[in-house]
Amino acid sequence: MAACNKDNTTPTTSSLNRKWKLIKYYNLTHGTSESEPVNISRSIIIEFSDNGIMGNMNGHTVTNTVGGAYELLQ
Question: What is the mean pLDDT of each run of 10 residues along the chain (74 residues)?
Answer without folding.
Answer: 46 78 91 89 92 94 93 86
